[in-house]
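Thymidine kinase
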Amino acid sequence: MTPISFIYGPMKSGKTARLIGDFYALSEHYKVTVVRPSIDTRSPDGYVKSRNGSELQCKVFASTDQLLSIMNASGTEVLLVDEAQFLPAETVKQLIRLSLNTALQVRFYGLMTDYLGNIFEASETITKFSQKLEPLFANCHCGKPAQFTQFTGESNGRTIIVGHDEEYFPVCTHCFLEAC
Ligand SMILES: [Zn+2]
């Protein structure tokens, strides 16, 4: 299997549903641990939750050290990271180093770009070191495949706005550029 892979796409492209499906498939052969950084407040603590209603228990971590001790405690062979765009770049690098020195496999799931179209720092680092990149697409309101996320709420200047789900829409490249 691939040591590092990145499954990325805009809001509502089914990333978490895909993670949950991967978890069950991989769990037949490996010790799989599901984690997400603690910055995301959408899901209740200890769960990743997809929009189609399925959910899975996960560990929430606030630091690289906490993540490493979660992995040690559960003998992780495959790590699935939800909301990976919110990882500190240093945590990403630690996981990549670990995958080089051990048999650890890491699958990152997350956004590539924020609603301004800028690549998240973590996503850039993950992309650079991934052996496998897999884009997921949502549906744009015009019917084309959407790879960007548009934010229709009031911007407060920050590029991470958590918990405003109803104000985010997936858009295709054409519609994204039209709105710029
Ligand atoms: Zn469109």
